[in-house]
Amino acid sequence: MLIALLVSGLSVALSAGEGIGDDSPYQANGVKVGEVHQNNAIIWTRLTKNPERKMDGIPFPDVKWEKQTDEHGAVTYFYPAPQIPEGVTLAQMNHIVPGTSGEIRIVYWQEGSVDNMKLKTIWTAVDPDRDFTRQFTLTNLKPGMSYKLETESRASDSGPEGQKINGSFRTPPAPENPARVVFTVVTGQGFHRRDGGEMGHKIYPRMAELNPDFFVHTGDILYYDKRRPVAQSVEQARMKWNRIYALPFQRDFHNHVTSYFIKDDHDTWQNDCWPTMKNDRMGDFTFKQGQAIFLEQVPMGESTYRTVRWGSDLQIWMVEGRDFRSPNTMPDGPDKTIWGEKQKKWFKRTVSQSNATFKILISPTPLVGPDRGNKNDNHSNKGFTHEGNELRSFIGQQKNMVVICGDRHWQYISVDPKTGVREYSCGPTSDVHAGGFREDMREPMHQYLNICGGFLSATVERQDGKATLTFHHHSVDGTVLNEDQLTVSL
Predict the structure, then answer these.
(1) pLDDT by residue (tens digit) across 340-357?
(2) Which pTM does this prediction carry?
(3) pLDDT category, 21, cuts 50, 70, 90?
(4) N or C end of the chain: smaller count of CB under 10 Å?
C-alpha cells in the first residue's frame, strides 16, 4: 500500500507496508531510539490501526479561552464550547492515529560486521493501557558503533504479519576515544505551526543532511494547552503525540537518529506549570497524567535527568525542570527551586567528576537569558534569582562548560557578565513559531541574536593538537546563520 501526499507541488509516496492484510497492525509513528549509552539503548514502538494518520476527518474547532469576572471581581477562565463538537467522537476527528493490539519484536545488528549477525528480542505485546506502545532495552552493545534495526509486527502469534520499520542508530564512543561528534538541538514544536505542510517541519530533513550522531529535543515537543485542541483528557493528550510523530519528516528522522528527549511545561501540562499549580483550563487532564504520558511516549530510563559521555571530548547533562519545582509565585530565596536538591547534588557531583574536554548542560529553560521582565519561569528571571546565581556560579567555575537551552522562541548566544557562563539558545522549529523578543531589545551580553526558527548544531573534533567545539545556528532551510567556536589546547 502506498500513501501519496502532495507537498509544494511534489508528489511523495510513503510506503505503508506492502502486502499487509486488513487485520494486520501498522507502525504509523515509526520508532524512536533513545537513552543510548555505550552499551545500551531503548527502542520505542507503537502499533497503529492504520498506516497513516487520518486525513479525511472532522477538523478540530478553534475554541478560544475566555475570561469572565463575577460581581466580586474574581476572574475565572472557561471555554465557551467543547474541544470536540457535541455528538462527535475523537475517532471522527482529523489527524488521529488510533492504536491497535498486537506484538512487536526488534531485530538488530552491528552495521558492517563480518557476519552481520542478527539479534532478536522476544515477541512482546504492546500495552493498550499505555497507548499501544512498547519499549525495548537493548544491552551488550558496543561503543562507537552504528547499528541497524528492524521492528517486526504481527497481530498475534497465530495472526497475520504486520508492517516492518527499518531503522538505525549510533552508540557513543568510549570515554577514552577522541572521536568527532556531531549533534543537533531543537525546541518549540507546534503541530499547527509546522512549515512543511502535511510532511511536518522542514528542519528535520535539513538536520538529517548533517548526519548527526545524536539529537536532543529540549522540550515543548508539543503543546497540550494550545488550541485545536486543548488537551482536556488523557485521550486528547495522547492524540497530540500520535499526530505529530506520524508526520513523515519527524518520523523518518527518528527512525534513523539516536535521540534524547527533555520535557518542559507545554509537554508536561500547561504554560509555566508546576506540580501543585491550580488547574484552571485543562479539564480532566492533570499534571500527574502529563508526567506519565511523557514516559509513555518517548524512550526513557529510570530518571528524566541524566548525563551521557560521547567520547573523550564531550559529556552532556540533560535536566528535569518541572517535576521538582516550587511554585513560580513563591517568594524567592534559598528554599525556592526549579531543579530540587537531589538533582542539584547529582549535577554538581557528576560535573565535578567528569574529565571530558567539553561539558555541556542542555536545559529546557534558560540560565543566562536575558529574558523579558514579565516572565517568571526560569533561572534567568527575577523570581528564581537565588538558585540561578547558585547554578551560574558553579558552571562558571568549571573548565570549558557551556549551556544550551530551549524554551525561548528566538536564537541567541549570551555571556553572563558576572560569571562568564556562555549560553546558546537553539530557537523554535519554524519561523512562524519565532517571536517574543526583538532586535531593539539586544543587550551587551548578546553575542548573537536572531528572531527566527531553525536549529542548533554542534561539532566536537580534534585539529592540530587542539580540541574544538563549533556551534552553528541554522535557519529552517539549514542555512548557517552564525558560527561560534571554542578551542582547547591539548
Answers:
(1) 999 999 999 999 999 999
(2) 0.95
(3) low
(4) C
> In which residue are the cell numbers 464550547 written?
81
Q: Which amino acid is at 254?
A: H
The answer, yes or no, to whether residue 91 has pLDDT greater than 50, is yes
Kindly compute the dihedral angle of the four CA atoms of residues 372, 376, 381, 384, in this order, to the nearest 10 degrees: 180
Residue showing cell 560569571:
419
Torsion of CA 395, 426, 305, 356, to 10 degrees: -50
d(CA 176, CA 178) in angstroms, rounded, equals 6
Q: Chain-centre distance of CA 322, in angstroms?
A: 15
- Please report where in the chains the cell 543587550 appears, as a residue: 443
- β-pair partners for 351: none
Lowest pLDDT segment from 45-54, 84-93, 112-121, 383-392: 112-121
Closest CA to 258 of 28, 35, 40: 35
Our CA angle for 453, 454, 459, nearest 5°, is 150
- For the record, the C-alpha cell of 143 comes out as 561503543
106/111 Cα distance (integer angstroms): 15
Mean pLDDT over the full length of the chain = 94
Give percent above pLDDT 90 in the chain: 90
CA contacts within 13 A on the Cβ side of 328: 18
Closest C-alpha to 186, from 477, 458, 429: 429
Cα–Cα dist 19/15, whole Å: 11
The closest of 457, 345, 434 to 391, measured between CA atoms, is: 345
203, 207, 213, 217 alpha-carbon torsion, rounded to 10°: -10
